[in-house]
């Protein structure tokens, strides 16, 4: 379920059939200075059933054209949260401000089924192929 907290706001909507993310829009005009951060309201509150969560993702076009991203990507909306969805945006550009107008699409909302884990303490963990190799341990680029 969705509640619109602003009469002029459209509910989250998918731009194309098969899209995973529904567009969220800002309800305010805002200018984000170079390397600046701002939290924008969307005018939307949702109610999700237990076992689901929504995740706020950046929009690829805004990231590619303006360096605009979601700071805590993805932002997590838990099933029990009933407040307004707000998006924390960061302008990663070092020289240009980003201007957003009321109604501009600023992020995508992806709703997913989530599992709840039961965390059991142990003195040792079972082995695996990866072992304790952590951040960057699998490479990602060819080294000369």
Could you write a compact summary of the structure shown?
It contains 1 helix and 10 strands. By secondary structure, it is mostly beta strands. The protein has one domain (2-113): Deoxyuridine 5'-Triphosphate Nucleotidohydrolase, Chain A.
What topology does this entry show?
Elements: E1 2-4, E2 22-25, E3 30-32, E4 37-46, E5 52-57, H1 60-66, E6 68-70, E7 75-77, E8 84-91, E9 98-100, E10 105-113
Features:
1 helix; Deoxyuridine 5'-Triphosphate Nucleotidohydrolase, Chain A; four-stranded antiparallel β-sheet; mainly beta
Give an account of the 3D structure.
This protein is mainly beta. It has one domain: Distorted Sandwich (Deoxyuridine 5'-Triphosphate Nucleotidohydrolase, Chain A), CATH 2.70.40.10. The protein is built from 1 helix and 10 strands; from the N terminus they run E-E-E-E-E-H-E-E-E-E-E. The protein has one helix spanning 60-66; strands spanning 2-4, 22-25, 30-32, 37-46, 52-57, 68-70, 75-77, 84-91, 98-100, 105-113. The strands form 3 sheets. Strands 1-4-8-6 form a 4-stranded antiparallel sheet. It is globular and about 55 Å long. It starts with a strand and ends in a 31-residue tail after the last strand. The model has no long low-confidence stretch (mean pLDDT 93).
